[in-house]
């Protein structure tokens, strides 16, 4: 038997609305028998599919937590058939600290799946999702945005999968989310991702990037809230009709690793293109200025392929190795 130390304070089998915690024992200097208390909400009404909705996988991304805290505060259940499990901030210690990775063990939750039941705090959280929450779910939505060092066009994404039927079901759910853009995503490194773990179970999985810069906007929050509702309606769990985006969704692809432009200098970024701009291979995307001395020629970064700018580095100071831009191709 697995011995993950997390105890839920809610009963996953009980009908109704429950608000509680995933209690993860965390003994430390200021609390000998203390715990990390990860907020969780469940809506359950009779038989039906289960949706697992998460935000705060990275602690400095706020569209997910904001939309999910809003949804979790609803007091209606008569329009729900099945079960909705909501964890607004998966990596809760990182969310509390406003940082991408956990301040407790410096781990990035989205790089350590499937996790370990007897590991550090972040590994235990990953293990609990891998072996308890995800197996209960049919539909899984994980809401990301760029955090403090990236800014994205708002998109819902799915991956290319070996199981083409599953891939098609993921694409349909990403499409139903109703973001202004939809992306077939190519990951820099899929090892240890929550995405890969959920997809390996054969679940319908949608991820997003809805903005970034360590903040939100009325528009990005509107997209996230609409997406949560649409995802649940698409899953057949929430009554209602899909709310269409204001204009037709633009479908993007990432056909190869030339979609990524990494920085080989440190300095100050002078952008030549903005999010959403079309670019052609060889066109300047940014100039990187030395901040050590004046009159050093700026390093020019050229577009590695044709496409549309779907992500950019923030803030304006850049370090060697940073991701400067991501380019998508309109399908
Ligand atoms: Zn993220």
TrEMBL record:
SUPFAM superfamilies: Zn-dependent exopeptidases. InterPro entries: AstE_AspA_cat, DoeB, N-alpha-Ac-DABA-like, N-alpha-Ac-DABA_deacetylase. Residues 48-234 form the Succinylglutamate desuccinylase/Aspartoacylase catalytic domain. Keywords: Hydrolase, Metal-binding, Zinc. Pfam families: AstE_AspA_cat (PF24827). Its cofactor is Zn(2+). Transmembrane segments: none annotated. This is N-alpha-acetyl diaminobutyric acid deacetylase DoeB. It comes from Marinobacterium zhoushanense.
